[in-house]
Amino acid sequence: MQRSMRWLSMGLAIGLAGSLAACSESKSTGAATGTDAGGEIKVGVVLDITGAGASLGVPERQTVELLAEQVNAAGGINGRKLKLIIEDNQSTEDGAAKVTSKLLNTEKVDILLGASRTGPSLAMRPLAEKAEKPMISFAANAKIVEGSKWVFKTAQNDRVVLEKMVDDMKAKNITKVAVARDASGFGEGIPEMLTEIGKSAGITVTTVQKFAPDATDFTSQMLGLRDSNPQAVLIWGIPPAAGLAQKAYKQLALNVPVYQSHGIGNQAFLDTAGDSANGLLAPMGRMLVADQLKADDPQKAVVTKFIADFKAKYNANPSTFAGHAYDGFMIAVESLKKAGTDAVKLRDAIEATSKWPGISGVFTMTPTDHSGLTKDALMIVTVDNKAWKVAG
Amino acid sequence: MTDLLQLVFSGLAQGTIYGLVALGFVAIFAVREIVNLVQGEYAALAGLAAISAVGAGLPLLVAIVCVIPLVVGVAVLLERMTIAPVKKMTPLTSIILTLGVSTAVKAVMLLIWGPEAKGLPNFPGSDMTLGGVSIRSQELWVLGIGALVAYAVIWFYEHTVRGKSLRACAEQPIAARLVGISPRTATVVAFAVAGFTGAVAGIVGSPIYLSSWQSGLSLGLKGFVAATLGGLTSLRVAMIGGMALGVLENLVAGYLSSGYRDAVAFVVLVLVLLFRPNGLAGKTSAVRV
What we know:
The complex is a heterodimer of chains A (about 400) and B (about 290).
Chain A: H1 2-23, E1 27-30, E2 41-47, H2 54-73, E3 82-88, H3 93-106, E4 111-114, H4 118-131, E5 135-137, E6 151-153, H5 158-171, E7 176-182, H6 190-198, E8 204-211, H7 219-227, E9 232-236, H8 241-251, E10 258-260, H9 267-273, E11 282-284, H10 300-314, H11 320-339, H12 343-351, E12 356-357, E13 362-363, E14 379-384, E15 387-390
Chain B: H1 2-32, H2 39-55, H3 60-83, H4 91-113, E1 128-130, E2 133-135, H5 137-159, H6 161-171, H7 173-178, H8 183-209, H9 215-229, H10 235-255, H11 261-275
Antiparallel strand pairs in B: 1-2
Family (chain A): Belongs to the leucine-binding protein family.
Pfam families (chain A): Peripla_BP_6
InterPro entries (chain A): BCAA_transport (IPR051010), Leu-bd (IPR028081), Leu_Ile_Val-bd (IPR000709), Peripla_BP_I (IPR028082)
């Protein structure tokens, strides 16, 4: 009797553990069955839906679901419906690799989208290259597409962001910069790149502090920044960590200007950082300041429509990450329209994307540039009272 | 010097949260020899529920007063549903069982509140700088409330008849029953205390450290490490151990590398288990373990 109770309790424990696994399992939407060539088009999407990247992955999932609905409602692509297969990588590299293999080998998707962050995207890249399937990442680090044949990405290159930032520092005669960076793939190589790009402007990095993407206390890092006597501080991370770092920065009474990366473009950042975000400087895509754009801006129409559609469905403003997902998804759709699902032709069509106005900028892909954006895609943006404003 | 003080101070605040979670581990283990891995989840649940209550328009204080009994209730309910039916409970069974429950609670929180981390608004007060050390008013709240709760729990276990009867249950279950102490009531009270300390930790910490469906995992782990410092049976050592762990983490992050912060707790755990498995106080007990 006692023995059976013990087995029962163990069984219960295992059953409960299984329930979480069930929660993180795939969610697929769209039309059912019929997988012969020429049938529905399978789009595999890998996103950071839970874990440290959740504030990125969730709006990205909403975006691809919204867009797939729109495309299917309009009759699909050349008469073929889209089938979305969305997987959660739980913000981990091994999670991304696992679900990517599943999408490529079991689901046999026609194109891969994602992941939300650099680390998981880097984990996906070799799998896409090996399977010779086109992949479009929504993450930032240039390493994702450096020398790649099959992999593209839509977030602004960190190099482009740093170039824009260095221009701004140059204009303000800032030469000594202290850096606090995300310890994961997103922050990898940033201080080195800043040193390299800033060389001509005489910019040097006084110290480099790292923080985990899920860190909650930033005292030690901010003290490190303060002690290096910088003229400006660069915090390179994503919310909530970037917001908490911004808060700690103000609390420790550092008063030099603070730059943040393009990784902070969502409401979660504004909520976490609160008033401490006032006055920060960040190179951002145009969507955050859509209402302040000039009427002749080539992106104005597409950005305004996307914001309206997103608001209508989810009753919230889309973040810049939603924008990266929009760009990735729509570039895929445009290319599928032109080339169909033949992997080689599809890849070539993506690479031939030229002067296509998206949310994050006007994209022109080339065989050597699989990211497609220059620093013109960015504006220096600041925060005033929990709202984004064009700086200056 | 200012740096050192700054690191120590913010470490103390973080450590108080660990200490409160550790108190919950001890509150239960001292009574029933159950390692309750749901402990961290109480904190996450309290933080998230309080955020929702504030979001629904309740004043902060009212939200807190509503949420704490709610979490205590959940703690007791989970005990009645999962611990009580088990006739022969060993520490190992309890670990497997509560691990499962904690996973289920996490999944439910993920479904209700979604994956994003959120924070409660700061408690009233303004931040200040004292001798170059920046002090967040919320950290003072954490320290103050933490000390108060720790004192109350220790006093309850050591100076009230009800508290003493709980410990009697652990030491002599049969004798305790003979003199009219119900092990069943004792377990319920122990889980209520654990739910209470967890809920307080989750609420006072939420404005600084945020709450999410998975924040209970690392809180639980660190609270557990702090509790092992006291051999899982000393409330005092658990509380002080939690605070020391917070300070140690901050010092390692400040003077070595912030990448090692999360490793500190595990190194401490390994060292304690290797050299002082009965806790730092060092009493060897034939009954325990």
